[in-house]
Every structure is written in C-alpha cells, then in structure tokens.
Amino acid sequence: MKTSFSLVAILLATLILTACSSQSAAQRNLQTEQLAQRGNLTALAVETNLPIKAWGRIATGEPIHVYIEGDGRAWRNGHLPSLDPTPHDPVGLKLAAADTHSSVLYLGRPCQYLMDTTRGCHFSVWTDRRFAETADIKAALQQLTGEQEVILIGFSGGANIAIQLAAQFLQVKEPHMKGPQVTGLVTVAGNLDAESFNRFHRTAQEKYGHNQALLAALADLPQLHYTGRKDRIIRPELTHQQLADIQSSHCVQINEVTNANHNGPWQIDWSAFSALQKACGAK
C-alpha cells in the first residue's frame, strides 16, 4: 500500500512539474511573439530540415540586417543538455526588434522556438554540434534574401555561425555557391572561434567552430565587434586575442562597452558601422 501511494505521489509530482514547465514555455513563446510584434517583425516561413524560426520585415532593394541568435539554453547545467534550446533571454531578437532599419531579418538557431523531435531535434544539435549545424540557417537565409545585400549580425554563439556564413557566401569556402551579397559583419559578445575560446577558459576542445583561418580570410570585410567589460563569458581580452591577426586592418573595429555583461545592455551604433564601411573602402 505504501509503495502504491509513493508511486502515485511521484506520478502526481511529475505531472505538476511537466505542467509548470509547459506553462512556462508557453509564456516564454507568447512573450517572444510580443517582442517580435513590437519590433514590427512578422513570422516568416522557411523550408529546412531542422526547424528554423524566422521573423522579419524585408524591403526589396534595401540592404538587410540579418540577426543570428546565440546558443540559447543549450545546457540545463554544466553537464546535462537542455531538452529545449529556446533562449530564456533572446538577446539576438531584442537587437533585431530594436533595429529601426527598413529591412531586418532574425533567424533563430536550429530547433529554438520550434522544438520537434520528429524533425531531428536531438540535443547534439545545440550542444557538441551547435557550430556544425549551418546548413539550415544558410538555406533559410538564401530563401528569404535571395541575392540581396546583407549585413550579418551574430550574438554570442551566433557570431560563430555568422563568420562561417560570411566566408561561405563570400566564396572563401564554396566558390560556386549562390546567395546574398555579404557586405558587413557585426558581432555582439561573440564567440568568434571555439578553439581559442576553450583554450582561454581551459575547457575541453570542440570539433567545430574553429574560425581563425576564416577570420583571416575576411580581413577585408567591414567588421564591428562589440565586447562588454563586465562580460565573464566573452571577455574583452579574448576578443582582442581572437582578432589579433587582423586587428590592424582598416576594416576591423572592436568596441568595448563599459557597463555591458554578456546579455547587455547592447546597442549597435549603425553610424559607426557606416563610417567603418567608408574607411574600409578607402584603405
């Protein structure tokens, strides 16, 4: 009888926790939708293998500011993968919603906001393979932008993806691939290179996201990199280390934000980026 009662109690507790978790996820999704709406961003449909959530407003003939979200909630703690990578604090989406430019696109990372195990959403996608899964973001970008001019903006781990995409679309890696014209790169608290990041933090090396060679190849692309002096994840000295080989380029600029930690507050100065583009073109 005691065993039966204990089993019922455990099952009841599990149901309550599941309901609370579902309610919390539903509330977060509602808040995210409201954030996108406040930024005049509408949901956009894309056809990809892994699900990609997209919001935006795209004006024909205008350069598109393309925001790529960070890693989201990849881990429940330091050792256990999350069951859903949707970010609790979608900094990339906040930046996109605050952008007053006429043409803005936001791309979540695979399975964020659209967790679906029937479409390949396995925890490896947002943990050890999070910097390997670029094909679906690239496909979404191609579908939504065609061959228009784009500036790629990556937050945190999204910066690593933005660098890979910039290299691919600028034909550094794939000479015959069609896609948007990448004319600039902005990173915010960006994990620019996984190898140097893990070496800096003395953590285990990862198989993917090693971008030092790509950064060198992108030295002539206008790049504005934001780093926060209160950020304990992407420290300013790490950003300077990662960009040491190209920091002397007229096209590369690092802006240190005094009061910013990893999640902000962040604000992209587009006038500074325009000035950087001119300086880069005049070198």
From TrEMBL:
Which keywords annotate this record?
A: Signal
In terms of domain of life, where is this protein from?
Bacteria
Work out whether the entry's keyword set contains Signal. Answer: yes
According to UniProt, the name of this protein is Serine hydrolase domain-containing protein
The cross-references to InterPro entries, in alphabetical order and at most eight, read: AB_hydrolase_fold, FSH-like_dom
Where in the numbering of this chain does the Serine hydrolase domain appear?
151-249
Its signal peptide is 1-25
